[in-house]
Amino acid sequence: MQNYKTNCFNSDNLTIKCGDNTINFRNPLVMGILNLTPDSFYDGGSYLNEENIIKRASQILDEGADIIDLGAYSTRPGAAEVSTAEEYKRMAPAVKCVRKEFPKAILSIDTFRAEIASKIVEEFGACIINDISGGTLDESMYETVARLKVPYIMMHIKGTPQNMQKNPEYDDLMGELMDFFEKRIKKLNSLGCKDIILDPGFGFGKTLVHNYEIVARLKEFNIFNLPVLIGVSRKSMIYKFLGGDPSTSLNGTTALNMISLERGASILRVHDVREAVECVKLYSKIKSQS
After folding, report:
1. How confident is the model at residue 47 (pLDDT cuts 50, 70, 90)?
2. Ordered DSSP codes for 104-127
3. Would residue 54 count as lying in a domain?
4. Over 65-83, what HEC string results?
5. CA 20/CA 8 separation, integer angstroms
6. Count of structural domains within the chain
7. Among the listed ranges 70-79, 180-189, 218-227, which one has the minimum average pLDDT value?
8. d(CA 288, CA 284)
9. 3-state SS assignment for residue 257
10. Domain range spanning residue 129?
11. CATH of the domain at 107
């Protein structure tokens, strides 16, 4: 295994190709969440018709997000399984109306199914595939990403959304995550895929202790010289430690986002776009003074 504690990482040099555009990471990006599910842990059921979907997409962009992430399959712990047909039924009309209303928006598709990814990218021009399984739940995903030639967000998960939080254990937490990413980056690279974004997967097969160890050691992912996405928005790792519930976890979210930026995060995936954008602006201002 490599020594993951040593590297000379510089996010200023990172870029990904997104359609006809090249995205750079001189300043971190913000990804706004648009849930199309009735059962997501925070805002499930809020965006189930075209009017509300467009309003939410407009809000995300108006508040300064760089990317809209649309998901039609709730992956909260213990979530019910959703058929491929139902996921597509939720996803397709939503992406279609957002793309029509905001033709230049960068749209990310939150799915672990290659069939869904392929259809949505080809039919509606989605720009990024965001896979919560890192390719472990659909063996054809990597070949699909290579064929579509779109950026790929590879998240670490231990198990499935249905069982991932049933006493997850690691002999070496960071070692296992590093091996997971290293093997899969090599596989994608062998298929010609270079535009890869890493997501350590907070809350996906991790205990509270695991989640905070990852935050503390986030810089170690910089060895891969790839953008790192952080998704802690209003998650239980915040309110189970501080008290409260998702509705009271914005302050904790912002605190962890700032800490993550200081440790090399390149993308913040959030429900609350305005606050995340302000966090990025303050971080970038401080960085410019150093």
Report:
1. low
2. T--EEEE-S-HHHHHHHHHHH---
3. yes
4. CCEEEEECCCCCCCCCCCC
5. 29
6. 1
7. 70-79
8. 6
9. helix
10. 27-288
11. 3.20.20.20
Using the Cα atoms of residue 113, residue 119, residue 124 and residue 126 in order, give the sign of their dihedral: positive
- Catalytic: which of 235, 240, 281, 287? 235
Which pTM does this prediction carry?
Answer: 0.92
Residue from 56, 119, 206, 269 carrying the catalytic annotation: 269
Token pair in block for residue 94: 């939503």
- The residue assigned the tokens 């555009």 is 21
Which of 266, 272, 286 is closest to 56 using CA atoms?
A: 272
Residue 58, C-beta contacts closer than 8 angstroms, at least 6 positions apart? 101, 102
Assigned domain for 20 exists: no
Position 75, amino acid: T
Is 99 labeled as catalytic in the residue annotation?
Answer: no
Whether 125 is covered by a domain: the verdict is yes
Q: What is the 3-state secondary structure (H, E, C) of 162-225?
A: CCCCCCCCCCCHHHHHHHHHHHHHHHHHHCCCCCEEEECCCCCCCCHHHHHHHHHCHHHHHHHC
Residue 148 lies in a domain: yes
| Half-sphere exposure (Cβ direction) of 95: Cα atoms closer than 13 Å | 28
Distance CA 222, CA 218 (A): 8
56 annotated active-site: no
